[in-house]
Amino acid sequence: MTPHEYSIIGHSRAKIGRHLGTLAGIVATGCALAIPFAFDVVRTFGFSLQVPTVLILPVSAAVIYPLVHWLFDHRAWRHPRMLQFLGVPDLNGEWACEGTTLEDSGKVRFAWTATVTISQTWEKIRVYLNTSSSRSASISAALVKEPGLGFVLMYSYRNEPKIGEKDLYQHIGYCDLTFNASADAAEGQYFNNKGRVTYGRMKLTRKDSSNGI
Description:
The chain is an alpha+beta fold. It folds into 2 domains: 11-86, no CATH class; 93-207, Lipocalin. It has helices spanning 13-43, 53-56, 61-74, 80-86; strands at residues 4-5, 7-9, 93-102, 108-120, 124-130, 134-146, 150-161, 171-179, 185-193, 199-206. The chain has an 8-stranded antiparallel beta barrel. It starts with a strand and ends in a 7-residue tail after the last strand. The mean pLDDT is 85.
């Protein structure tokens, strides 16, 4: 499934976009100057060459910006120093999940385990949860930094039972997870509705901590 956009409370993507535009302009200017210089160097070796206009005209910020943006969105933002500057955690990877579904009295109705997979870029995210009986994927999400606690990921999702699970029904739900400052563990709660009215708690542990900030 295709990742969807998510909001980051307190983080201005427009401001970062302006910085990326400035960087694209600098790179474009450098390329436009470098091409004639390279031909001048070649001429010093006795070759008679003219700089083709077709090489210079396309070198503009409008052409460079998509490349700069893609590199930042998929690669550069995940650098540890960049994460600190942005104030955004890198949640990419697989997480081991231990969940409990609760009774109205607060007692544990039953326990379950799952694998949570988070696919995240600077602009988009998708949260997948897979259990032995069903799977779910996020529909919308928001991320907020909580000073002294870490980061809270809030998302809505759609859950579908696996084939053969006759007692389960497709439903939608909401989950909020509080990740610690090192982004290698989280605790939270979930609520299901419209097809399966249940709620409970979740604990996540990163399977591979190499992606944390």
